[in-house]
Design brief:
Blueprint lengths: L3 H26 L4 H19 L11
Amino acid sequence: MTGPLSSVLKFIAILGLVVSVASGVSVLTGAISHGTYNLLMVLGMLMWFGSAVFWIKSQPLGE
């Protein structure tokens, strides 16, 4: 996949990772509740797995 769609998918995937990490830090510092943490982790996971599968190419072992 190339072009602007690939850039948008990469942005969404990286944003999903940022949401996941930020929610972990926020719950550790006590800024958000555990329920909000769970919601943000699921949201980040869906963003990552929903978009990264389209632009990460698998390579056979040995290459």
